[in-house]
Amino acid sequence: MLASSNSSSLSNDEKKVQTVVSTSPVNVVNVDGLQHQLSTFKSLNGRTINVVRSTEKQLALEQLGYKQELKRSYTYFDLFGVAFSIMGLLPSICAVFAQSTAAGASSSWGWLFTSFFGILPVGLSLAELGSAFPSASAVYLSAWHFAPERFKDVCAYSVCVLDSIALSAGVCSIFFSASGQILSCVQVTKPDFVVTHGKKYGVYVGLLILGAACGSFSGSISTRIQQLSIFFNCLLLILVFIALPIGTKHNNIPFNDGKFLFGDAENYSNWSIGGNWILNALLPAAWTISGFDSPIHMAEEAIYTPRNLKKHVLLDPKASPAAFGVILSISACGLLGWLMLVCLYACMGPSVDAIMETSYSSIVTQIFMNSLGQKWTIAIMSLIAIGCVLMGISAIMATSRNFYALCRDRVLPPFLADFLAVVDKKTNTPVRAMYGTCIVSLLLGLLIFQDQGANSLFSIAVAGFYMALCIPMFLKITYARNTFDKGPFYLGDKLSFFVNFVAVGYQIFMIILVMVPSVKNPDQNTMNYTVVFTFGILALALTGFYWFMHKYFKGPRSNLTEDEFLEAVGDENKIDFIFSSDK
């Protein structure tokens, strides 16, 4: 699709906009000195358009070959809000707190390490990709472009499938957690209330439909929802930070000391204590600080300004709003999440067993009951449930944008893809893709009727997500090391290579970790089926690709005609050299 953004070596003649139409296909390699600087795509009329990147390196969506259909209304702070809302710190911590506590209070160190030495490098690498390819499908576009010629289509298709399944599983896990929080509130008021899989799925379906309906609002309303979500999540954190210690002291529950907080290690499995700690202390942050790719998928709705070369790249967020949405959300959740874990462990009381053996579906509920009493617990758990719903709305919005972009390139059969890749003219949102996403999530949600299947939803969201990201990042530091694209956000040659190398290593390690069973020698009830679901879905998708989808999916597919392209990115945008050819 795109190649190196360095066009400083062009002559003055080459910097004039020209259009050349020939009757035979154009061989890019024969273009003097420009073969690594061309952006190539098929126009809507079937011609091949090759474009040398603009000298100012500020890419427009049209330079990628796509028509601007979504309304640009998101600042970098709004995009930060999308990711921050999806992470929904306190609701997410409530969902993973049992696993974290299974490693002991010292698991907070695992959270800190994973956040800043694993997830943040991945976020920085993703920010570079999103900046170079400012499209909702940036992950797959970069994989297609970086891969060797003969593997471009299958490599990109694999990334499409993995990313889409991971995003859909993420939506499932969020709304599944929300349904659990709501039913926990019912348990507090009615101790004899029994939570069944059917009840959870019923609440899950209702919340999913509600999320899709809210996600279909216009951009101006959606941005308000994101801003509301930021303030709501922050207010919820502040409330717990203040109320929980006060309630703990008021009820004469002893605070745990520093030795307990930072040195306690528990083992609720038959793994060794070290193996148990690795499994249960490193994964909670990965499950919570996920969905940070959402600003990238919302990039086509971002408001940005040209890169100010007088400022350092880290001081110019308006030039790369999606990139900064990714980085800020990871940093904020990494720090605040660690502080929240420390607060919960300080106030949980000295007996870990008493908390782990609670009858509530969420063990955090037991901590709140001990320190705050029934009324305050119901109030806070209700707010957490609302936070979960806001998380889901943001998640389904980002997922639908990715789904829309992939349908635009016909990742699905044409009759279905062309139907779904339509933007509603009233709201300027991909409503059909929104409800297509909803249907996929409803089907995946059926896994909650099997306990290990429900747990696999979280794991698929992480494994599929990291597998999708790992492919373009690995290609970037290997095959495409000397030809990859540089967007407005770029860390520099040496630092970029180091960060991407760390990101790839961390992702490979985490992919393996999420597929390890929680116990040694598992039976059918304790087996981790993530490897089966993830690779099974990928195998089916690749079978379908080689069977019939290779006829339709040919990588990026422009929805612009040549005239629309020239009108969008002609002299005014300083495009250096343009030529097109027949098919």
Automatic annotation (TrEMBL):
<keyword id="KW-0472">Membrane</keyword>
<feature type="transmembrane region" description="Helical">
    <location>
        <begin position="322"/>
        <end position="347"/>
    </location>
</feature>
<dbReference type="GO" id="GO:0016020">
    <property type="term" value="C:membrane"/>
</dbReference>
<feature type="transmembrane region" description="Helical">
    <location>
        <begin position="154"/>
        <end position="176"/>
    </location>
</feature>
<dbReference type="InterPro" id="IPR002293">
    <property type="entry name" value="AA/rel_permease1"/>
</dbReference>
<feature type="transmembrane region" description="Helical">
    <location>
        <begin position="456"/>
        <end position="475"/>
    </location>
</feature>
<dbReference type="GO" id="GO:0022857">
    <property type="term" value="F:transmembrane transporter activity"/>
</dbReference>
<protein>
    <submittedName>
        <fullName>Amino acid transporter</fullName>
    </submittedName>
</protein>
<feature type="transmembrane region" description="Helical">
    <location>
        <begin position="201"/>
        <end position="221"/>
    </location>
</feature>
<dbReference type="Pfam" id="PF13520">
    <property type="entry name" value="AA_permease_2"/>
</dbReference>
<keyword id="KW-0812">Transmembrane</keyword>
<feature type="transmembrane region" description="Helical">
    <location>
        <begin position="76"/>
        <end position="98"/>
    </location>
</feature>
<keyword id="KW-1133">Transmembrane helix</keyword>
<feature type="transmembrane region" description="Helical">
    <location>
        <begin position="110"/>
        <end position="133"/>
    </location>
</feature>
<feature type="transmembrane region" description="Helical">
    <location>
        <begin position="433"/>
        <end position="450"/>
    </location>
</feature>
<feature type="transmembrane region" description="Helical">
    <location>
        <begin position="528"/>
        <end position="548"/>
    </location>
</feature>
<feature type="transmembrane region" description="Helical">
    <location>
        <begin position="228"/>
        <end position="247"/>
    </location>
</feature>
<keyword id="KW-0813">Transport</keyword>
<feature type="transmembrane region" description="Helical">
    <location>
        <begin position="495"/>
        <end position="516"/>
    </location>
</feature>
<feature type="transmembrane region" description="Helical">
    <location>
        <begin position="378"/>
        <end position="398"/>
    </location>
</feature>
